[in-house]
Amino acid sequence: MLGFVQRTYAPVLGPEHHAFIARFEDMSRDARCLLVRMINRRGAIFNRSLFNYPEIDCVERAASDLIKAGHARELGEADYAAFVSCLPKDVRAHSG
Description:
mainly alpha
């Protein structure tokens, strides 16, 4: 898909777009697959232990690669409220 975008829209893509494509192509196949999977999920906070995709050999390594590439990050203190809102209701009741 990115190859099509590059061939078709190269003249209108900005430097940040070309940089994204280059970074994406430099990542491992697992990392690329995981990024696409994450983009297609709802929300911005994910429980990696729930990731089980047949095309990804090692989710932990793929997640680490995404963090190194700047496409993902570990949760921080500022993420607490969003994290709690993602929890099932029965767990949320005990987190306060």
